[in-house]
Predict the 3D structure of the following.
Amino acid sequence: MLKNILIKKLESSKIMLDIKHTLLNILCKTAILSIFLSFAIPAIAATDTIKNANWEKVPGTEPSQANIDANQYDEPAFLNTNGIIKKGGIVMYDIVNPDASYARLQTNCQTKNFRTIRVGQFISDSKVEYQNIVGEWGKASELYHILIVDFVCSL
């Protein structure tokens, strides 16, 4: 009788050990997958055509005036005045930075806060390749950003 009880306990202990081993294996694989997925996965680039653009120079953003490295960049920022979208107190617009990169920004003209929602590059005169991003709202504090915010809010 005692022998039968011990055999049953041993069998259930073996089953429990198998279950524990299986669960540990699943948890380990899940942890590895979780770590793998936590690495930054590059965003997929999209393209857009900017139609009827009217690129106006943002006054004061010339490298010598806006604290931009004049040795690195020799062009000011340009803003597409035909593409400005106003929703409530938020203004959305496209710019070309002095390094020829493309960005779409949103600005709250009352608070002078802004954020970047798209970054990319031109692949032709009117076509951009970009990635949507979720930039945090922040106060324009660098002269370059202040000039852009002031310019777009004056339009």
